[in-house]
Amino acid sequence: PEDQLHEGQVTLDGALAKTLSARGVRRWHFFQLPVKVAAPESCQEASATDGTCSAQGLALRTHVAAARYYDSRTHELNSSVYRWSSETGRFELHQALPTIGAWGLASFELAGMSYLVVASFFDGSSRKLNT
To answer: Does the reported pTM lie above 0.85?
Structure first.
């Protein structure tokens, strides 16, 4: 499938490292987003009225987005967002974004909201794209 992420391993300076690859990727962008997590078990057992524990907290989860430009057949490819799963120890597909000739990615936060932007460069016939 187009959104399939391949993982491999290489040795860098004697240390084992994972590699990521996917069809048609021009650029990778790693970023973190806050996610709600359950409170520790000790908080869940505490009285709801004592004010010492919050029912939920926030943690940061690592994501990677892949800007897909061209795969030798088409520029119309989904650019994929994968998120890290601590349960499986892998990046898993989170969202597929329809793009045409995606060239770059950036993420930012504004007024408490997180954004991911994708820039397109070429659709196979024109560089005048509305992205």
So the answer is: no
Report the distance separating Cα 106 and Cα 78, nearest Å: 16
> What pLDDT digit, counting tens, does each position of 73-92 carry?
888 888 999 998 888 888 89
Instruction: Spell out the long-range contacts of 118-121 with Cβ–Cβ below 8 A and sequence spacing 24 or more.
Output: 118/65, 118/67, 118/79, 119/67, 121/69
> pLDDT tens, 30-63?
999 888 777 666 555 544 444 555 556 788 899 9
Sheet with 25-38, strands from edge to edge, namely: 25-38, 56-68, 76-85, 90-100
Using CA atoms, how far apart are residues 86 and 32, in angstroms rounded to an integer?
14
Euclidean distance between CA atoms 60 and 36, whole angstroms: 9
- Nearest-CA neighbor of 21 among 63, 61, 62, 68? 68
Radius of gyration for the chain, computed over Cα atoms and rounded to the nearest angstrom: 19
- 38, 53 contact by CB (below 8 A): no
Query: Sign of torsion, CA 47 49 54 56?
Result: positive
